[in-house]
Amino acid sequence: QVQLVESGGGSVQAGGSLRLSCAASGYTSSSNCMGWFRQAPGKEREEVATIYTGIGSIYYADSVRGRFTISQDNAKNTVSLQMNSLKPEDTAMYYCAADWVTGPCEYTNWGQGTQVTVSS
Predict the structure, then answer these.
(1) Alpha carbon distance 93, 102 (integer Å)
(2) Which residue of 22, 35, 67, 73 lies most exposed, with the fewest beta carbons within 10 A?
(3) Cα gap 80→115, rounded to integer Å
(4) What is the pLDDT of residues 46-95, one digit of tens each?
């Protein structure tokens, strides 16, 4: 059974940094894609960043481009999100997601989430 476990959330003041990590277990092959989503209270879930393992490309939401960096380790089953210059509007529950099926990226595996709170 595939399991995604996030870590690294917490509280920080505006302008600060946090690093989120997500470790996948239960799957030994390289992922098709891995990414991060977030959801703030009363808002829809937003895709923050995705790394397309097979083709080596990366997507960032406009709201985080230039401040956040997504990366994978060599085994392709751990994904991290370095978040710099954090803003209060970055406050949300952050979720890791992954897909291991070759083809279009379709997330079917999700972590439990880790809370990020940015105070002004």
Answers:
(1) 28
(2) 73
(3) 15
(4) 999 999 987 889 999 999 999 999 999 867 689 999 999 999 999 999 99
Structure tokens at 53: 């393992």
Which residues are paired to 70 by β-bridges?
81
Residue with tokens 């083709």: 55
* Tokens describing residue 116: 């990020």
Amino acid identity, residue 109? N
Strand pairing class (114-119; 10-13): parallel
Query: Which helix (H) or strand (E) covers residue 7, if one does?
Result: strand 3-7
What's the rounded mean pLDDT across residues 3-12?
95
CB 35 within 8 A of CB 45: no
